[in-house]
Amino acid sequence: MARDTSHADEPVAARPMAGAVKIALLLAAAGLLIAAPFFLYPIFLMKLLCFALFAAAFNLLLGYTGLLSFGHATFFGGSAYFTAHAVKVWGWPPEFGILLGVAGAAALGLVMGAIAIRRQGIYFAMITLALSQMFFFFCLQAGFTHGEDGIQSVPRGHLFGVIDLSQTTNMYFFVLAVFALGMLVIWRFVNSPFGMILKAIRENEARAISLGYSVAEYKLGAFVMSAALAGLAGGVKALVFQFATLTDVTWQMSGEVILMTLLGGIGTLVGPVVGAGLVVTLQNYLATSDFPVTIITGLVFMACVLVFRRGIVGEFYASRLGRALGFTSER
Amino acid sequence: MGMVADHEPRVVLSARGLGKDFGGFTAVNNVNLDVQHARIHALIGPNGAGKTTVFNLLTKFLQPTRGQITLLGTDITRTRPDKVARMGMVRSFQISAVFPHLTVLENVRVALQRPAELAVQFWRPLKTLNQLNGRAEVLLEDLGLTRWRDARAADLSYGRKRVLEIATTLALDPEVLLLDEPMAGMGQEDVRMVAEIIREVARHRAVLMVEHNLSVVADICHQVTVLQRGEILAHGDYATVSADPRVRSAYMGTED
Ligand SMILES: Nc1ncnc2c1ncn2[C@@H]1O[C@H](COP(=O)(O)OP(=O)(O)OP(=O)(O)O)[C@@H](O)[C@H]1O
Ligand SMILES: [Mg+2]
């Protein structure tokens, strides 16, 4: 069926990814992260990596599924409690402690997701908020979390029975490896057959339904994956600080990860990492000064949202330089 | 399709006493409809008559207030819309429904992924989907979209988006096809092409289409149902319906 197609819209080839630029940037980032602990305070770097992974996990939902969860602290902080308890009270090795945290977060995600997933927009956010507040009160009351005190002096233990994580350098490279693994999982998830369907659902939900996709189940799958990865970040954080605390299950923590993600740019892999880096750095810097931390971060956030509507990384991708380097921005 | 001749009338989709109220407003009332295999059935009527609402009811995007719907012998009055699609009835939308940031090829592949069971693998690379390219490219070829294979759907002209939507719908090889104004906003050239495609695909499928272009309706449709203010005004073949004085005053008179 050859037809004359002399219309205005000429074929526009999808922009080829500038693979070389990306690989170069990736190698540079890897080099920096490997060298960083010899120049910067390792605990700060580990905190940064944990929050970066947390934000990236959150973005799996906001950026790649189009769902705004206001309850992600449940998975981050919940996993921290599970890991800390398993390691400290049951004497589990760190890797199994973290796995328990991940499994617990995934289970919590399944419950919260199943309840909230059929709601849209603000209702979805409100239900996740309400459920995470319930979890907060559970953590406040439950015995094993030790209420206001939290679970303190959690031993880091020996990874696989051999690597002593109480040594800061060992711990740093362990955290870096977990971070890299988490990012790899997210990258694969986004660029997979499942990720393609998620993208289709985000772009036109009604059309996806009319093609026979049970969209609620796909969204739930993404929700559980996001919760599990947030749990991975939370479990590792508990070992870094040797401490699991109520702070990590508060609604403020859920808000903070939204802020990091929006700041960096939703729907990009790197955006949440940059956003988390900025927020954590700012908090660290302000903690030693007299400025009120929340007000300053709030102001920075407002300024960024006004100036960089797509987030810092999203804005860079959409800029002339970004496009010249072969990045594509979706929003 | 078995041994049954494609010309034998066989009802694949039927509605009885279908009705929908929005608050106090009755948008659709007492609609009876029989859509047959290998036939093209037009649903026409003035703006706001309730055509799209009937589509939404039949495909279960809206839950009917009254009445019953049967698809391929199964009662689907309480079935979810994605299930209806999996049972073999696929619809298009009045406002063109493509996935704008996916390429033309990817749009069609999304439809192919589910039947090929390549929709849930979150651990496999994207290139796994290349095994669907062959089938997708055949569809693009059939609909004259090959040149735009790698263009983003958002960059297509309006008419071509509609053609892509049809390609995506056909990718599912549905038994029943519901097309809501498939030719709206197309140039003459494309209208003729799409009419020809619909005629072609209807040789083995039932098609129910909303269409304002009456020459197309006269040309390709076997059955015509006229809707007015949510109720059926007339039904029959085009000659009968267009001769009906009530239809002439209610609908043809207002047609540009
Ligand atoms: N979700 C809704 N809520 C309230 N009223 C609705 C809804 N959907 C449709 N209607 C009303 O129902 C009536 C029928 O609308 P419908 O879209 O089905 O008409 P149509 O025949 O498809 O018209 P058109 O030719 O303009 O596409 C209209 O008066 C419309 O305003
Ligand atoms: Mg309509």
Q: How is this structure best described in words?
A:
- The complex is a heterodimer of chains A (331) and B (256).
- With 331 residues, chain A is an all-alpha fold.
- Chain A has a domain at 41-249.
- Chain A contains 14 helices and two strands, in the order H-H-H-H-H-E-E-H-H-H-H-H-H-H-H-H.
- The model of chain A is unreliable at 1-16 (pLDDT under 50).
- With 256 residues, chain B is an alpha/beta fold.
- Helix content of chain B is 32%, strand content 24%.
- Chain B has helices at 51-58, 81-87, 104-113, 133-142, 158-171, 188-201, 214-220, 238-243, 245-250; strands spanning 11-22, 25-36, 40-44, 66-71, 74-75, 89-91, 176-180, 206-210, 223-228, 231-236.
- In chain B, the strands form two sheets. Chain B has a six-stranded mixed sheet with strand order 6-7-8-3-9-10, sandwiched between helices. A four-stranded antiparallel sheet of chain B has the order 2-1-4-5, with helices on one face.
- The radius of gyration of chain B is 19 Å and the shape is globular.
- In chain B, 48% of the residues are buried.
- The model of chain B is unreliable at 1-5 (pLDDT under 50).
- The interface between A and B is large, with 38 and 56 residues.
- The structure holds adenosine-5'-triphosphate and magnesium ion.
- Adenosine-5'-triphosphate binds next to helix 1 of chain B.
- Chain B: InterPro entries: AAA+_ATPase, ABC_AA/LPS_Transport, ABC_transporter-like_ATP-bd, BCA_ABC_TP_C, P-loop_NTPase.
* Number of alpha- plus pi-helical segments of chain B: 9
Taken together, the total number of domains of chain B comes to 2
Strand order of the largest sheet of chain A: 1-2
Distance between the amino and carboxyl termini of chain A:
36 Å
Q: Helicity level of chain A, as a percent range?
A: 55-70%
Order of helices and strands of chain A: HHHHHEEHHHHHHHHH
> What is the count of β-strands of chain A?
2
By secondary-structure content and strand pairing, the structural class of chain A works out as mainly alpha
Mean pLDDT of chain A: 83
Which fold name is given in CATH as the topology of the largest domain in chain B?
Rossmann fold
The count of β-strands of chain B is 10
Q: What is the N-to-C order of secondary-structure elements of chain B (H for helix, E for strand)?
A: EEEHEEHEHHHEHEHEEHH
Helix content of chain B: 25-40%
Anisotropy-based shape of chain B: globular
CATH domain class of the largest domain in chain B? Alpha Beta
